[in-house]
Amino acid sequence: MGRYSCGVLLLTIVLSLYAASQERYESGPLKGFTIGQSSGNAIEISEPFRVCTVKGVIEAEQGNVPVAGAVFQMRDDTGAVFTATADNNGKFSITNATAATYTIMITARGFHAAIGTLVVSRKCYRHGIIRIRLHVGT
User: Taking the CA atoms of the chain, what radius of gyration do you get in angstroms?
Assistant: First the structure.
């Protein structure tokens, strides 16, 4: 095999592995979200988050310990999904989110997924952060 053929083959394998790791729900309320590593059933967040900017922290419910690597996803009414991964302090942000209502899903290995609603508005008087507490999975 020539040098060019090996490069194309390697790129094809890498893209295939990436696509496989990015499997998404095809239907239902989670349509478009990446299938995560959470365990157990998803827990619904009862109250919507209302913010001006999409930034926050993801913690374990008990002990307020940051959940590094947790995945925060938000889906708009067109079906577009925006994703952020929590850093070592559990912090995440998505820049340039437009004012809209989003469905959100938060996943992390060893925790139940959390699902809820996020309302991004440009008319905020207080700049709060999104604080999510995940329940340990079974």
Answer: 17
Share of the chain above pLDDT 70, in %: 73
What does CATH list as the number for 25-134? 2.60.40.1120
Q: Where are the domains of the chain?
A: 25-134
d(CA 112, CA 40): 6
Structure tokens that stand for 98 in this block: 């437009």
Report how far residue 128's alpha carbon sits from residue 59's, in angstroms, rounded to the nearest whole number. 16
- Cα 88 to Cα 98: distance, rounded to the nearest angstrom: 27
pTM > 0.85: yes or no: no
| CA gap 9, 116 in Å, rounded | 41
